[in-house]
């Protein structure tokens, strides 16, 4: 059966004419979306009013009227018409129903919460993920699936804000534009996003789905965002065969296998896949590029504000096992063997993993639960893996002041030398005191220690160098050394809404920092983002740059003047590199 359905340009025009002239937009919304139609009329009204009216001048009668016409048309006709067209989509993984996102003339199909692995509970808890079975009955993919349970000190900021559940958290989201450029006859380029959060927190619904659908997909790429396990659930290791850890990285790997198997049915090209992420997400994509278990399932990667060679991202297996053992002892565990330690973690409520406030971590840094050099996901030293890995197109970036957003982890007024000790303990350097002396001299020799602002700024620079800049540069150098096609950049554009809470409230001064680029690539996150005209231009530049890279392996685009120069491995990070290497 062939079906033709149509809408007119302004479906709500006639119906709006019957509305009393003094009726407000809020009142019209309340009338259409009353309690018989939605569960929470007030919350629905607030969302709709914010969405339709956020850029409208309250004193502009014509603009207000036009928005009311658009809303009535969408609510009573357009959305229902579109949903009748997209009732069930028979994807290669099973029949699903999804969303339709309209952005002007362009339409993006979205499928949220698509399962790619079986529930990681019971016998599958603290194990590598198992692929989800194909289903035969339609499933609704209208809203984000639950995130994986959170851990660490940041978990408190997300409690009650999003849904978390261990039993069905391994899901992903697909945003597929309806445009079919002849240039990509095999399918559109695919971009797979992995969130950050220090491997302790994070979930795909950190990104607003409508906002995301209106960024990269409008530039002719299919976007996939992925949930993976974090905290102990994702990275518990006993340092031996009992629990090797890195389950979150295996989740990411299985998601890439799902992309290879199924993305073609969503309009994507499995032979043109780019993976990208920020912070722990940036480190993740670099890890995926190193591991022989994952590095043949994509063709390029972009690591923003994080890489495999950053000190925060990974520890030796014996040290990470010690962290997990000491965490258990902090709560009364008194066993000695690996089996009893695994059993202790299996018996805990996941809420326990957020109680880290008084836990004295036996390792440097701010994080407890991170990946480890397990001998499995990483069967060889990282440098050897890089040498043997497929040659890829690579972008690595930093923010102008990477350490700025991490000052919330540094107690106010803490002496600089104590911050050095926090990041460079005996697990990191051979001679702690000598290393601290060299670093204090290097960073503080020209600083008036009574000038709190000057000390703060130098501390920001140190934290950024120690945790991010040097590791990211070393990734660029490593990739270039072994024949990868590498681009290196710093994102220096400041935007007051560029970073989400809780970090946004702690910035010591205004500058681009860790993750500031993300909203300019994928749109709104957990905090508000109402871009100005200038910021919209920056978004367009970033979106074009990133999608050029995804399409062609070159951020400059195809057959255009070369603005971005390839990194040749010659540039050093900073004058501080020598001291930190020492």
From TrEMBL:
Domain Carboxylesterase type B: from-to ranges: 89-570
GO molecular function: carboxylic ester hydrolase activity
PROSITE patterns per UniProt: CARBOXYLESTERASE_B_1
Phylogenetic classification of the source organism: Eukaryota, Metazoa, Ecdysozoa, Nematoda, Chromadorea
Superkingdom to which the source organism belongs: Eukaryota
Protein name stated in the entry: Carboxylic ester hydrolase
InterPro entries per UniProt: AB_hydrolase_fold (IPR029058), CarbesteraseB (IPR002018), Carboxylesterase_B_AS (IPR019826), CM06B1-like (IPR043187)
KW Hydrolase (keyword) present: yes
Alphabetic keyword roster: Hydrolase, Serine esterase
């Amino acid at each position: 059966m062939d079906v033709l359905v149509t809408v007119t340009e302004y479906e709500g025009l006639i119906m709006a004419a019957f509305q009393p002239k003094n009726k407000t937009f809020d009142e019209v919304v309340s009338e259409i979306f009353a309690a018989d139609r939605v569960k929470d009329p007030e919350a629905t009204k607030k969302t709709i009013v914010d969405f339709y009216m956020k850029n409208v001048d309250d004193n502009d009668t014509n603009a207000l009227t036009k928005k009311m016409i658009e809303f009535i048309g969408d609510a009573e006709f357009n959305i229902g018409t579109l949903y009748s067209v997209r009732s069930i989509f028979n994807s290669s993984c099973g029949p699903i129903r999804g969303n339709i996102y309209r952005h002007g003339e362009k339409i993006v199909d979205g499928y949220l919460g698509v399962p790619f692995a079986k529930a990681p509970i019971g016998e599958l808890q603290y194990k590598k993920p198992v692929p989800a079975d194909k289903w035969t009955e339609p499933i609704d993919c209208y809203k984000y699936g639950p995130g994986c349970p959170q851990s660490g000190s940041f978990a408190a900021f997300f409690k009650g804000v999003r849904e978390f559940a261990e039993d069905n958290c391994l899901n992903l989201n697909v945003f597929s534009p309806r445009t079919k450029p002849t240039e990509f006859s095999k399918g559109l380029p695919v971009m797979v996003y992995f969130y950050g959060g220090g491997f302790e927190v994070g979930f795909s619904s950190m990104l607003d789905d409508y906002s995301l659908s209106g960024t990269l997909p409008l530039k002719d790429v299919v976007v996939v965002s992925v949930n993976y396990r974090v905290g102990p659930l994702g990275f518990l290791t006993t340092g031996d065969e009992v629990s090797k850890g890195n389950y979150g990285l295996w989740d990411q790997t299985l998601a890439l296998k799902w992309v290879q198997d199924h993305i073609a049915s969503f309009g994507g090209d499995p032979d043109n896949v780019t993976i990208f992420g920020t912070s722990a997400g940036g480190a993740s994509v670099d890890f995926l590029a190193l591991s022989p278990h994952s590095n043949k399932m994509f063709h390029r990667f972009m690591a923003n504000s994080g890489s495999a060679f950053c000190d925060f991202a990974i520890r030796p297996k014996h040290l990470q096992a010690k962290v997990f053992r000491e965490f258990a002892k902090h709560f009364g565990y008194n066993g000695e063997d690996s089996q009893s330690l695994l059993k202790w973690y299996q018996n805990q409520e996941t809420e326990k993993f957020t109680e880290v406030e008084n836990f004295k971590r036996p390792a440097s840094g701010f994080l407890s639960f991170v990946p480890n050099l397990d001998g499995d996901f990483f069967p060889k030293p990282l440098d050897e893996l890089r040498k043997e890995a497929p040659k890829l197109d690579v972008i690595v970036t930093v923010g102008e002041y990477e350490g700025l957003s991490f000052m919330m982890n540094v107690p106010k007024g803490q002496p600089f030398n104590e911050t050095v000790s926090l990041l460079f303990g005996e697990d990191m350097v051979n001679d702690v005191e000598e290393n601290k002396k060299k670093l204090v001299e290097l960073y503080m020799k020209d600083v008036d220690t009574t000038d709190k602002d000057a000390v703060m700024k130098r501390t920001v620079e140190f934290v950024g160098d120690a945790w991010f800049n040097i590791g990211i540069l070393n990734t660029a150098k490593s990739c270039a050394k072994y024949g990868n096609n590498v681009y290196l950049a710093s994102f220096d554009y400041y935007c007051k809404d560029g970073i989400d809470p809780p970090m946004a409230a702690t910035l010591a001064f205004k500058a681009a920092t860790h993750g500031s680029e993300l909203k300019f690539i994928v749109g709104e996150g957990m905090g508000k983002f109402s871009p100005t005209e200038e910021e919209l231009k920056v978004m367009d530049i970033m979106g074009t740059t990133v999608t050029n890279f995804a399409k062609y392996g070159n951020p400059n685009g195809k057959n255009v003047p070369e603005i971005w120069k390839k990194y040749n491995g010659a540039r050093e990070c900073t004058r501080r590199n020598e001291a930190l290497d020492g």
